[in-house]
Amino acid sequence: MIIDCISDLHGFYPKLDGGDLLIVAGDLTAMDQAWEYIEFGIWINRQKYTKKIIVAGNHDNIAQKAEPFINPQTDEWEYLCDSGTEFQGLKIWGSPWTKTFPGMNPHCKAFTCDTEEDLSEKWALIPDDIDILITHSPVFGVLDGIEIEDGSLFHVGSKSLRMIMGHVKPKLWVCGHIHEGYGIYDVRQLQKELGDPIGCVHVNASHVNEYYRPVNKPIRVIL
To answer: CA 38, CA 15: separation in Å to the nearest integer?
Structure first.
């Protein structure tokens, strides 16, 4: 199965190659205006995929306040918010939540929680038998690093989300949110060598970098 992953579009809408499944993991528009969601809808309808799945992010206030506006549940694409769906035998779950941080823009607090304890209540909704997990937030320690002055990485992903990794073992985990964390961490080969052929592919699919420039390509995963 050909799966393309993209997140943190922030109003930039590239033409994609097409495939079986498209995953969009949040932060859909540039300024969170109603007309931009229409523009986003036009863009995603033009993409050539059998199925398209969308999860919101912390910039998507309209999606939180007026869910039906972004939730047509068409045959081609589906909006997930602490909810699941299936595609070609794969069980998929989407959750938009992230944790607030000091100095966070007050206009970018859609689907946010103030504590890891509050976040853990959201993650508790995730079923154990999920094949593809989509969360706007990365897990702590995986594709969530922000480089600080001494050149080291400061990890800002969710610690409570990491705690559920022991019993939720998806084949693919897609996130965004931390633009600097863009990339793919594919542990399937390592897991195979250790005798566990399942393994999880982690993807941070942020389209924009830390300067909000659309320089990162969608990440393709073959399952």
So the answer is: 17
